[in-house]
Amino acid sequence: MSFVSPLFLWYFMPAVLIAVLVCPRTWRNGIIAVGSLLFYTIGAGAFVFLLLGCMVVNFAAGPLLAPSPWDVHGVRRRRILIAVVSLDVTVLLIWKYAGFATQQIAAVAHWFGGSVPVASLVVPIGISFYTFHHISYVVDIYRGERQALRNPVSFAAYIAMFPQLVAGPIVRYREIADQLPQLRSHRLDDIAAGFPRFALGLCKKTIIADSLGPLVEACFKVPPDQMTFATAWLGAIGYTLQLFFDFSGYSDMAIGLGRMLGFRLPENFARPYSSVTITEFWRRWHMSLSRWFRDYVYIPLGGNRHGAAQTYRNLCIVFVLTGFWHGAQWTFLVWGCYHGALLVIERRFGFDLDPAVRWKRYLRRALTMLLVVFGWVFFRSPDLGHALSMLGHMLIPDFDGLGAGVEQAFTNQRLVLLLAALAVFLLPAHPVTGPLLESSRSRPATAMRIGVMTVGLLYAAILIATGTFSPFLYYQF
Predict the structure, then answer these.
(1) Sequence-ordered alpha helix ranges (H) in 112-147
(2) Which of 6, 150, 421, 453 is the most exposed place for a label (fewest CB within 10 A)?
(3) Distances from the Cα of 281 to the Cαs of 98, 255, 317, 375, 419, in angstroms?
(4) Are residues 179 and 196 in the same domain?
(5) pLDDT tens across 284-312, in order?
């Protein structure tokens, strides 16, 4: 059940919000837990039992991981933590990577004349996200940063909360633990504050991202031997914009929904295409994922505390995992290694900028954007051969123009949207979206916000009613 489907927008979301408003405040977490499990069951079917099984194990382990006077040295707690995290990771590895692993083994066996059966498993939606939530929960308790939840309803509300269950943002337990027992009395205020953010995400997804989708699909479907310079660049730039508006649109909707339910979920984007270095890009893009890997992988490995060589090693490990986290394909692994290598190069040679020299900053911003666009070619391509061919055409100019299929998709409407999206990246680099949408002190700003959102929502509603919407791109991860 997608956020942009009529079933969600016109039935499920209003029903949950009305229930939260009408029922006693103490029922909030229960309503969210039941509604979220129903939401997941509609989308994933029997895989809800896999989710419930993981939830039972992690919830039961929580109290056992808390510091105890009977376990002074923490040996028992450490063993329990290792066992639970190993189980969470094993579930993720089996369902998401077993098919890829057996494909590689079968390919090697074929070289030696043998044969190995290839596993074919359907990847449960959201498994990467709720696995990371489970790991965050048990690790934060083990570290003594937060206490274990004793109420299974509150635990279910955290893990299965439908705004962030399928595609994030990844909410670390420490970020939401203090909010779970809070029973906010200003529920109408929460809805008034969260709805504009939800509406913004809906417009970004349906009006911009979905309009760019057919153009991007047409460009990436062109066979490598028919690819041209113009087609390659159009596809790469189009996907760069589509992915941003699709994923940041989902995050806006999730954050807005969370606020309407009384939770403040973490921000996931801060104008990433305004970055002047790749390091800064990763502080602005999918921030919840970056923070998760920093806290639970990079720092435990030693971070940057043990010299340059180990810092580079830790960065490479993190970005290999980041690439594979997105999917069991070599293209994702290469994309992760590509960004890891860029980060190592930046740390090794240093790229300090003088804020007073504006032209250098603009030049670095353009270079960073170019490097990011090249990386997205690996991320979107069906295989490495297609990605390398496309990059080759992007680097070697020709005058062949666009193919017939691409020209048909490249309508005037999409050209306007493409130019409008590019114009967004020329705005100031600091993030302004959240405060602007939530502020109500300025009457002119409030009136403008309401007017823009009303027009955008009407147009988005028309697009949804006519069926011209597609699943979120990050649903596959």
Answers:
(1) 127-142
(2) 150
(3) 32, 21, 18, 12, 22
(4) no
(5) 999 999 999 999 999 999 888 888 889 99
Q: What is the mean pLDDT of the chain?
A: 85
Asked if 201 and 132 sit in the same domain, the reply is: no
**Residue 47 to residue 51: CA distance in whole angstroms:** 7
Q: Is residue 305 part of a domain?
A: no
Residue 316 lies in a domain: no
Q: Can you give the pLDDT at residue 251?
A: 92
pLDDT score at 157: 94
- pLDDT tens column, 266-275: 999 988 988 8
- Domain span at residue 132? 6-183
Domain count, the chain: 2
Token pair for 287: 């921030």
| Residue showing tokens 């808390």 | 66
Residue 345 placed within a domain: no
CA-to-CA distance for 131 and 437, rounded, in angstroms? Answer: 32
How far, in Å, CA of 266 to CA of 476, rounded? Answer: 22
| Domain match, 397 and 468 both | yes
Q: What angle do CA 426, 429, 433 make, to 5 degrees?
A: 95
C-alpha–C-alpha distance, residues 96 and 92, integer Å: 6
Q: Please report which confidence band the pLDDT of residue 252 belongs to, taking 50, 70 and 90 as the band edges.
A: very high
Q: Are residues 239 and 127 in the same domain?
A: no
pTM given for the model: 0.89
> Rounded distance, CA 238 to CA 206, Å?
15
Of 183, 212, 243, the residue that ends a domain is 183
Per-residue pLDDT, 192: 82
446 versus 437: the higher-pLDDT residue is 446
* Overall average pLDDT of the 346-361 stretch: 67
Count of other CB atoms within 10 angstroms of residue 19? 16
Is the bond into 169 cis (omega within 30 degrees of 0)?
yes
Query: Distance (Å, rounded) from C-alpha 24 to C-alpha 19?
Result: 9
Q: Do 148 and 206 lie in a common domain?
A: no
Q: Is residue 307 part of a domain?
A: no
Question: Quick one: 195 and 178 in the same domain?
Answer: no
Both tokens of 194, joined, read 């969260």
Based on the fold, state whether residues 103 and 169 are members of the same structural domain: yes
C-alpha to C-alpha distance for 97 and 299, rounded to whole angstroms: 25
Distance CA 128, CA 223 (A): 32
In this structure, the answer to whether residues 15 and 129 fall within a common structural domain is yes
Domain boundary among the residues 145, 160, 183 is at: 183
Provide the annotated active-site residues: 326
d(CA 24, CA 192): 19
Of 379, 316, 302, which is closest to residue 347 (Cα–Cα)? 316
